Amino acid sequence: MCYALYLWFVTQGYLICSLGKSQSIKQLAKKNTIPLLNTSNINHPQFSQSLQHINADAMLCVHFNQRVHPRIYDLFDGQAYNLHPSLLPELKGVDPAFYALLENYKDSGITLHHLAEHFDQGETISQTTYSIKPQDSVFSLNRQLFTLGAKVFKDYIRFGHKHVCSKDSLHEARYDSWPTPKDVSQLRKKKRSLIRLNEIYSLLWH
User: Is residue 10 part of a domain?
Assistant: First the structure.
């Protein structure tokens, strides 16, 4: 239940808290004359037709929960990417930041890679390491990693900058599903949080 509430907050409540504080995606798209498409199923044939109509240059997935079919990402001729909040191949799965804290990782990072038919398996383009702080929650760690990811993607698109970490992996590569109540309980025992009260307060009042 705790994790479900956390997911609601980061996907819906966070957006509600942000209203009036920054421009929405819809506002930014309108301001910059960028077509905005909404869909609950990225693989729907009608959405594929819409993508072809706007003739977009690239595709970037961020914290995306659907497997993208090859007929969709092939429309971008090798320019379809994903930002994954771990140093792949470590911590494949739906919430790498959670498992990094649960398993006492000293550092994590962000990986920019090409989309592939299976989750988190496309060719790696660039990675940046982040040292996990004692005060990091799952929320703050995700926020830090995707902030890094925005810079990584921008540098790659603008300048072609590539960097892949060369450190040896100390952890077995696997695919993690959603955390269980037992996992959340273990996280608390390690004095880690899904999200801290001061982070919620900051989103509500700043």
Answer: no
